[in-house]
Write a structure and sequence with these properties.
globular; mainly alpha; disordered N terminus; Leucine-rich Repeat Variant
Length: about 500
C-alpha cells in the first residue's frame, strides 16, 4: 500500500520537567530544564509492565507441555493448520512455542506449511487463555518480514488473534508499504481486531481500490461492533461512508479495543518507542515514526506530551509537528505547549502546533504573537490562526490583515496571505472583499512562500465560485491571478 490523554507526570522524574520564568506567552526568554524524558518514560512503563508480568510468570512453564494440544490441531478445519501441526509433531521430542517458531523459520518446508504454523501461534492463546510474548514476536516478525505473501497474511491474522497490542506500530508501518492485496486485507483486519485506527484506514484504502471482497465479512463485523447500521446489499460507497464514521470515532478517542483494558502498558511502551525514533538522525526512520503516530490518533498523545520535555530539540520540534497533524485529538498537549511559547529555540513550531490543535484557550496567545516584531513568528502565528478559523476570529483576522499588508520596505506577504486564507475559509465573510485584499498581494507574489500563495489563491477562487476550466491541466499561478481579477471586476460592476 502506498504512503499517504494527558500523561501521568508523576511517573516522570522532577528533573525532566521544564521550569519557566514568566507567565504563559511571556516574551522573556524562559529558564528551561529538560531531561531524557522519553527514555525515562519508557523505563518507568517497562518497570510497571515487569511488575504486572511477574504476577503471572507461573504461566510461562505451561507451553512446554503442549504436545496434546498440538495433536488437537490435527482436527481443525483449516488444511494448512492441520498440515503444519502434523509436520510439527514429526521428529520433535518436545513441542513448545520455541519448536514452532524454529519450524516456521525452516523455509524448506514450503509456504503452505509455514502459513499453517503461523496460525498455530494464535491457537496457543485459545488453549491457555493468555498470550506468550515469544508467539507475538514470531508472528509479528513473519507478518512484516516473510517473503511469501501467504505467510505474511497468515501471520498477520495470528497477531490479530493473539490480541497483543504492542504489535500495532509494526503492523501499521507494514500496511504503509505492503503491495499484496491479500496481505493488506489481513493486516487491516488484524489491526481492527487489535482496535487500531490504522486498520480502518487500511480497509477504506482497499475499498477505494475496488478490492472490497477479501474483507467484507470483517467490515460488517467491525461496523456491527460500533453500532453502525449497514444494509446487506450495501454498495462500496456506503461501506466507505460507514467506515469513515468509525474511523473518526477511533481517531478522536484513541480507542484500542472495545474490550476492557487490562492493566498492561504494552501499547504505551510500543508508542513511546515510536516517539523515541522521531528524535533520531535517520530521516527514513523519522518519517516512518511520524506516519505511525499520525495514524494512531489519541493513542500516541501521552508519549508525545512527554517528548515535549525531552532534552533533544529535534525530539521536541518533531513532537510538535505530529501533535499539529493530529489536530484537536491532541488537545491534552495544549497546557504544555502554552508554557513553551516563550522558548526561544522553537517559538514558531509551538504556535503552529497550537493553531492546528485548535483549542480556544490558545487563541489569545496566537493573537499576541501575530504582532511579534520577528517575521517568522508573525507568520507562524498567522499559520496557526489559519489552521482552524471560526467566525468569532474574523474581526481580529481583519485587523492583522490590515497591519500585515506588505510594503516596499517589508515585502514579505506570507502573514497577510495566511490571514486571507483564514478569512476566505469562514463562510460568513464577504468572499469578494477578501479577494480584493488578495489582489493587493500580487505585486509581492515573488516574495511569498509558493505553497502559501497557491492555497490562498485556490481558496479564493473556490469561494468566489470560479471553476478550473482546464480539466486536463491545472491552471498555473498567472492564470489564477487573471481569473480572480476578472471575476472580481464582474462582481463590482453588478
Amino acid at each position: 500500500m502506498r504512503p499517504r490523554f494527558a500523561v501521568l507526570f508523576a511517573m516522570m522524574p522532577t528533573a525532566a520537567v521544564p521550569v519557566f520564568v514568566g507567565g504563559c506567552g511571556s516574551r522573556a526568554a524562559p529558564a528551561i530544564v529538560y531531561g531524557n524524558a522519553v527514555a525515562e518514560y519508557i523505563q518507568s512503563l517497562e518497570r510497571r509492565r515487569g511488575e504486572i508480568l511477574g504476577e503471572t510468570s507461573v504461566r510461562g512453564t505451561q507451553y512446554t507441555q503442549s504436545r496434546d494440544w498440538i495433536e488437537s490441531a490435527l482436527l481443525v478445519k483449516s488444511g494448512t493448520v492441520r498440515t503444519a501441526a502434523r509436520q510439527s509433531l514429526v521428529g520433535m521430542g518436545r513441542v513448545g512455542i520455541e519448536d514452532i517458531i524454529q519450524y516456521i523459520d525452516t523455509e524448506e518446508i514450503g509456504t503452505s506449511a509455514r502459513a499453517g504454523a503461523a496460525g498455530l501461534l494464535a491457537l496457543y492463546k485459545h488453549s491457555f487463555g493468555f498470550t506468550l510474548p515469544a508467539a507475538v514476536k514470531a508472528a509479528a516478525d513473519l507478518a512484516t518480514r516473510a517473503k511469501e505473501p501467504a505467510v505474511r497474511a497468515a501471520a498477520a491474522a495470528a497477531v490479530g488473534e493473539l490480541g497483543e497490542r504492542s504489535a500495532i506500530p509494526e503492523l501499521t508501518l507494514r500496511l504503509r508499504y505492503e503491495t499484496s492485496t491479500e496481505v493488506c486485507a489481513a493486516l487491516a483486519v488484524a489491526l481492527c481486531r487489535l482496535g487500531a485506527l490504522a486498520g480502518v484506514g487500511g480497509l477504506r484504502e482497499l475499498i477505494h481500490r475496488g478490492e472490497l471482497e477479501p474483507c467484507i465479512v470483517s467490515i460488517k463485523f467491525i461496523l456491527a461492533n460500533e453500532g453502525i447500521a449497514i444494509a446487506e446489499d450495501a454498495e462500496m460507497e456506503q461501506f466507505d461512508a460507514a467506515l469513515a464514521v468509525a474511523q473518526r470515532r477511533w481517531f478522536e478517542t484513541g480507542r484500542v479495543s472495545s474490550e476492557p483494558l487490562v492493566n498492561d502498558p504494552s501499547l504505551e511502551i510500543a508508542m513511546a518507542r515510536v516517539v523515541a525514533r522521531i528524535g533520531g538522525a535517520d530521516l527514513r526512520a523519522v518519517d516512518d515514526a511520524r506516519f505511525i503516530l499520525s495514524m494512531s490518533g489519541a493513542a500516541g498523545v501521552p508519549a508525545l506530551i512527554v517528548a515535549l520535555h525531552d532534552a533533544s530539540v529535534y525530539m521536541r520540534v518533531r513532537a510538535m509537528e505530529v501533535l499539529g497533524i493530529l489536530g484537536p485529538v491532541a488537545r491534552a498537549a495544549t497546557p504544555v505547549l502554552l508554557t513553551m511559547t516563550g522558548d526561544p529555540e522553537h517559538p514558531a513550531e509551538v504556535l503552529v502546533a497550537l493553531g492546528r490543535i485548535g483549542a480556544p484557550e490558545a487563541r489569545p496567545v496566537l493573537y499576541q504573537f501575530a504582532d511579534d516584531p520577528r517575521i517568522e513568528v508573525r507568520v507562524a502565528a498567522a499559520r496557526g490562526l489559519a489552521a482552524r478559523p471560526e467566525v468569532s476570529m474574523a474581526p481580529r483576522l481583519r485587523e492583522f490583515l490590515t497591519r500585515s499588508l506588505p510594503d516596499g520596505a517589508a515585502p514579505s506577504p506570507d502573514a497577510a496571505l495566511l490571514c486571507i486564507q483564514a478569512l476566505i475559509m469562514i463562510p460568513e465573510t464577504d468572499a469578494f472583499a477578501v479577494a480584493d485584499s488578495l489582489l493587493q498581494m500580487e505585486p509581492f507574489a515573488a516574495h511569498a512562500d509558493p505553497a502559501v500563495l497557491e492555497r490562498a489563491l485556490d481558496a479564493a477562487l473556490a469561494r468566489c465560485g470560479i471553476a478550473d476550466e482546464s480539466a486536463s491541466k491545472p491552471a498555473d499561478t498567472n492564470e489564477k491571478w487573471k481569473r480572480l481579477r476578472a471575476a472580481t471586476a464582474v462582481h463590482h460592476k453588478k
